[in-house]
Structure formats: C-alpha cells, structure tokens
Amino acid sequence: MARKKKLPDGMRYLEKRKCIEYRFMVEGKRYSVYGKDAKECYQRAETKEQKIKEGDYKKSESLSIAEYFDRWIKDKEKNAKETTLRTNRILFNIASGIVIDGNGNTFGNLKIVDVEAQHIRDVQDGMIKAGKSTRTVNDTISLVKSILQTAVDTDRIITWNPANGIKRVKRTEPTARDTFHRALTEEEQKRFFKTAKERNSWYYNLYIFLIWTGCRCGEAGAIQNSDISGKMVHVHKTITRTAEGTYRIGDEAKTKAGNRYIPIEPDARQAIERQREINRLLNNGITGINDALFKSPHGHLLSDTAVNQDIAKICKAAGIEKITAHAFRATFATRCVESGMPPKTLQEILGHTDIGMTLNLYAHCMDETKVAQMQAVKINII
C-alpha cells in the first residue's frame, strides 16, 4: 500500500472535508485556509495575509453564517433591485432563526466553516414543520446555497458548498393558479362585483379596471393621469417595495414586453372617470397630470396587502372562495381565450415576454365552456 505524500509544515489533510488545511501566523495571530493541494493553500494564505495587513479583515473561521450574510448582501446592494434585496433578507431571516440542535443553537449563529449538509436539511425540515410553503422553502435553500457558493468561489473561506446535494422539496399544496390566483367563473364575477358595490368598496373602480385590462395590481397603482390618452392606457411602470419595505413607483417596466399599450373598453373607461372624480373631490378639484390614478383611502400609493385584505372581505360576504387581486388578471385572460382572442394578441396585452408563458398559464377555459365547444364539434364516422 502506497504511503501518502507528506504535507509541508503547517498543513494537514481533513478526511471529512476531503481537503487540506493550512495554518499560518500573521502578526502573532494564527489563521487558517483550505485548499485541494499545497499550492492552492499557499495562494489563499497569501491573499488572506494581504487582506489582514490592509486592516480590512476578520478571521474567516470566526464568521457566523449571519455575519457572512451581512457582507454578502452589502455586496449585492451595488447591483440588485430593492425588492430582491428585501426578499433575500426576509428569506435569510427565516433560515437564520431555525434551531439546528438540542441546545437551541440557530443556523444563523453557526460558524460558516462549520456548516454541514445536515444543517441545511435541518433548516429545510424546520421550515416545513413551521408550515412554510414549498416555494418559500425552496427559495430559502436556494438563497443559502448561493451565499455559501460565494464563500467558496469569491472569498475562498470554505472549499465546498454543503448545500450542493440538497434536493428541492416536492410541491404538495395546490398551485396558486388553482386557488387564490384562479380565474373566476362568470357567476362568481357577478357576485363579487355586486357585493363590492353594495359594500361601497374603496377599490371598486380598481377591480373593474383590473378585470378589463389584465393589469397587475402594482401596474395599476403606478398608472398616472398622463398615461391615459384617448382609447389607450400606457402601462410601463409598477409599484415596488424598497429594501426598507416602503412603496414607490419604479422607473420602468421589468421587461421590454411589460412596456405596453392596452385598449380601454367602456366599462374600464367609466371606472377611470369615476375614480378621477373621486380624486378631484378629495383634492379640492385639483389633480395633477402626474398624479397616480388609483390610490389608498389615505391618498398614498396602492398597497397590495390592503387591496387583498379588502378582496378577502368581499369574497367572504359573497360566499366566494378567497382570491387575490391577481385573480382578475387570470379572469381577464380566461375570458379573452374563451372569446377567441389570438394568443399573440393576448401575450402583448398581458406583457409576457414569451408566448409560452401566456399559453401555459392562461390558455385554459372553464369546464362549461369546454362542454359547450365540444358539443358543437361534428364528426361523421358513418
């Protein structure tokens, strides 16, 4: 049996991690780096020593996963959107607070060099037990994986990513398009709008606008008086949330396809004029060309949370299974499909970049429509 090659002084092979650890001294303090061979260890040690001497360094092995996340997110702030940063912070906070042992230690307090695959599984299991959705669980693990991969590739704090072998959780709950994002039946439509009108819902005109244009709630909230001209409404912005959680109108649509013009049908036109009259009454007869058309009861930008809370109350009063504002978009698309609108036209109105998205998400009809259309088919076999 061949003898293992002797490692240089200060190095030892870590069987568990399948790598070499190199311990060295800088200014009287001991530090460690990890690599696949002695050459890589020396290179990493040289880089680390330079950072230490520049005074911009904390011992890597002492960083907790939460401390490393703070570094990671600060670097992301240079290019990522505010909504992305906010989402990342929310997801990481969920993972960070998961207890991963019997002593009450949480994932966020683990040293990054001590994170193992089992810890990632513990986070995954902890989120499932807490009732988090499959999407939230998978998005959180994906985020943790990305953070750890940066520690491997960029900062070279660890030599392997313990999240690489973690499998995604298989969805068990119904999809949103089949529950609260589903298209309403024509009967549900009538009941919803009848109830909304009877309850004097502040958002009644908004709901009519949404179901007649297929706009997202954030897009409708970003529409200004100047965006409405003749028989068209220009949709080219959306309301976004900053990293701090406040609302603002974004600069432009997410994609080129999101910048679009949508025809205004009579019902939508009437809703717009009614809303303009309400705005004039609230502002002593004065409305600016750049004022948002649809606002909150207090004159602030629309909040999807507040809108969906109002929708939930209307659904309960109308005896309809709970939906969100996005259901109006699905309902609009379904009515268009049932009316025979060409998929390409629907794609442009909805602002989808890929027509496959339009077909996969919305190209389905209500059961009663399918039955009626099947009955109209004539097949002569005799």
Question: Topology of this structure?
Answer:
Elements: E1 11-14, E2 19-26, E3 29-35, H1 38-53, H2 65-76, H3 82-96, H4 117-129, H5 134-153, H6 186-198, H7 204-213, H8 217-221, E4 228-229, E5 232-235, E6 239-241, E7 247-249, E8 260-263, H9 266-282, H10 304-318, H11 326-338, H12 343-350, H13 355-362, H14 367-375
Antiparallel strand pairs: 1-2, 2-3, 4-5, 5-8, 6-7
Describe this structure in words.
It is a single chain. The chain is mainly alpha-helical and 382 residues long. It has 3 domains: 11-57, no CATH class; 63-153, DNA polymerase, domain 1, CATH 1.10.150; 176-375, Intergrase catalytic core (hpI Integrase, Chain A, Orthogonal Bundle). The chain contains 14 helices and 8 strands. The strands form 3 sheets. A 3-stranded antiparallel β-sheet has the order 1-2-3, covered by helices on one side. Strands 4-5-8 form a 3-stranded antiparallel β-sheet. The chain has a two-stranded antiparallel sheet with strand order 6-7. The longest helix has 20 residues, at 134-153. The model has no long low-confidence stretch (mean pLDDT 86).
Tally of individual helices: 14
In CATH, the homologous superfamily of the largest domain goes by the name Intergrase catalytic core
Largest sheet: 3 strands, antiparallel
Q: For this structure, what is the CATH class of the largest domain?
A: Mainly Alpha
Poorly predicted ranges (pLDDT <50, ≥5 residues)? Answer: none
Taken as a percent bin, the fraction of beta residues is 5-15%
Order of helices and strands: EEEHHHHHHHHEEEEEHHHHHH
Structural class: mainly alpha
Question: How many strand segments?
Answer: 8
Q: Report mean pLDDT, rounded to a whole number.
A: 86
Calculate the terminal CA-CA distance, rounded to whole Å: 82 Å
Q: What is the level-2 CATH architecture name of the largest domain?
A: Orthogonal Bundle
In the residues, how many domains can be counted?
3
CATH fold category name of the largest domain: hpI Integrase, Chain A
Shape: elongated
Any idea what the radius of gyration is?
A: 28 Å
